[in-house]
Amino acid sequence: MTNLIRTTSKGKYSKEKAIALKELAIKSIGSSNRSTAFELQQTIRLIQSVQTEIDALDNQIKLVVQELNTPLITIPGIGYTLVPLY
Q1: Which end of the chain, N or C, is less packed with Cβ atoms under 10 Å?
Q2: Cα–Cα distance measured from residue 75 to residue 63, given in angstroms and rounded to the nearest whole number
Q3: What's the predicted TM-score (pTM) here?
Q4: Alpha helices in the chain (DSSP H)
Q5: Rounded distance, CA 46 to CA 53, Å?
């Protein structure tokens, strides 16, 4: 980490600065609370589930638009998700 900080700062920051930044990061985001970790895992699973649903809906929209065979899809900037709005 020291080399990364020294390189990216073009020598402006030293080893001491790298150590200080590491200690600040541990204090600010370092958490070993099991309940917080569990809640975070649940939230991540929920986001993944919602993203799966969004992907499925996008695929259904694309299929319907392809069935309609509308010329709107040929307009630059108009994609499969915008065609149903017209």
Answers
A1: C
A2: 18
A3: 0.54
A4: 2-8, 15-29, 34-68
A5: 11
